[in-house]
DNA sequence: TCTGGGGTCCTAGGACCC
DNA sequence: TCTGGGGTCCTAGGACCC
């Protein structure tokens, strides 16, 4: 079993793209995230500010305190996708099996490619993969102008951990049989799937490294069920060709599933100031329902479950959901979330965040579709414009300005109809 | 220093059915 | 007449990832 799974990670992706768009940011301490002073967090931090302790996920306030001289750039979510798509296109030239794990992370499976790609100078299959991966990394740098790091191993968790060690802009291959030597000294937190909670519980058992976790004997009564279950996944993940229990995600390794009917879609929003007014909350829900149903229609799917998410001023978060006949209509979603809001919002509580999630997605049933009301003509026209020019090309009046009379308002605020 | 937004996966209790 | 067992769906919450 050769090391043939690669994990490619784009280094400080959002920062790198912002630097492409504004070269004056190159070499500067850069933080991409919510607006400074607002209720936002860091989404990407350059290496210059990481040395000061700034990390993604950190509140912007804290980042500003740690790195007062950094340049703060607002996250532009629509901007980064096309760059990720360019990267994927390069990857597909080099590897037949590419799986997009997130906007800045890809897994490649070179199974069966070793001999095809072998060159006379390669001493073994590992050398072949390593050479190809270095070429591919250079190609991304040259063509898309983005730095990437690649880890290579026998399993996905190993490849992922190796990519972390390869940063910045490096390549690291962990040979078959050397997984434990590589991972053993690492903190448990480095293993994909072990987060802060599992880390703390393991620390309570005196386990801080992956090596320690693996060495705990099965019979050890002090080890909780957590450590036992983690060890199962870990052992498999560190074994060449190993299985995929717990921490190893998306089991059938690289299966691309039916995107139209899988998973869920959600949109949520944190208010600048906590909300106590029903009308303001309902306006926000209108905007969220409009956006999320538009995305659902673009997928060609319908949702069987509608869920309202509420986060109160004290940060407690609840969800309330309901199963419904499959729908993709904003009005259906809105009726449900308004009703759920009434039942879930205690008097006097202030709301920090509202979210609308659509899940249990299904393909439209042709039998049902026959009798379903057609999408109103104006709705269809709005969809068509948004499909061409993007969601924000059109805003509903009530959404654009709370309290405004209904109607469609163009980008500049002029009335379209 | 108060904590974004988009997801996936897992668990657990209760309803309901046979 | 004090009580089985299995299967599936629904709902809520939480850990985790980027």
Describe this protein's structure:
With 417 residues, the chain is of the alpha+beta class. The chain has three domains: 1-176, 2-Layer Sandwich (Alpha-Beta Plaits); 182-233, 5' to 3' exonuclease, C-terminal subdomain (DNA polymerase, domain 1), CATH 1.10.150.20; 254-416, Dna Ligase, domain 1. The protein contains 16 helices and 14 strands. The chain has helices spanning 13-21, 47-50, 60-66, 77-94, 114-117, 125-143, 156-166, 179-183, 196-204, 210-215, 225-237, 278-299, 330-344, 366-371, 377-389, 397-400; strands spanning 5-10, 30-33, 42-45, 71-74, 97-102, 105-109, 148-153, 171-173, 265-275, 302-312, 317-327, 351-362, 394-396, 408-410. The strands form four sheets. The protein has a five-stranded mixed sheet with strand order 5-6-1-7-8. Strand 5 (97-102) and strand 6 (105-109) form a beta hairpin. Helix 4 (77-94) runs antiparallel to helix 6. Mean pLDDT is 86; it is low at 241-253, 255-259 and 400-417.
Keywords:
single chain, 417 residues, Alpha-Beta Plaits, Dna Ligase, domain 1, 3 domains, globular, DNA-binding
Architecture blueprint of SSEs:
Blueprint: E1 5-10, H1 13-21, E2 30-33, E3 42-45, H2 47-50, H3 60-66, E4 71-74, H4 77-94, E5 97-102, E6 105-109, H5 114-117, H6 125-143, E7 148-153, H7 156-166, E8 171-173, H8 179-183, H9 196-204, H10 210-215, H11 225-237, E9 265-275, H12 278-299, E10 302-312, E11 317-327, H13 330-344, E12 351-362, H14 366-371, H15 377-389, E13 394-396, H16 397-400, E14 408-410
Parallel strand pairs: 2-4, 7-8
Antiparallel strand pairs: 1-6, 1-7, 2-3, 5-6, 9-12, 10-11, 10-12, 13-14
The chain binds a DNA duplex (18 and 18 nucleotides) through α3, α9, β9 and β11.
